[in-house]
Write a structure and sequence with these properties.
It is a single chain. With about 100 residues, the protein is mainly alpha-helical. The chain has six helices and no strands. About 15% of the residues are buried. The mean pLDDT is about 85.
Length: about 100
């Protein structure tokens, strides 16, 4: 059984899930330390839905899974919110644009 767990297929969907999960996790960590802990913790929890093992665990334990289209829409909202209306977006502007 361990051999099957070690031989996971690397699909484009899982790679995108890992990459976007790491991005949202990093946004959460940045928010916790630079802006405010509450939105940072929310981002940290939201990042879990993008990691394939967490998604598989959710499906295994509850029988519920989050459809891909919901993840895409949520990802767009997260990026829009982070860059558009959050204090973290203002900090990014100050550092990189308003030198």
């Amino acid at each position: 059984m361990k051999e099957n767990a070690m031989q996971r297929r690397l699909t484009p969907s899982s790679v995108i899930g890992w990459v976007f999960g790491i991005v949202v996790f990093a946004i959460g960590v940045a928010n916790v330390f630079l802006v405010h802990p509450v939105p940072g913790i929310v981002y940290l929890f939201l990042s879990l839905i993008y990691f394939p093992p967490a998604n598989a665990l959710l499906k295994e334990k509850t029988g519920f899974y989050i459809p891909r289209i919901v993840k895409i829409i949520l990802g767009i909202i997260i990026i829009q919110f982070t860059l558009g209306v959050s204090d973290l977006g203002d900090m990014i502007d100050d550092v990189f644009i308003n030198k």
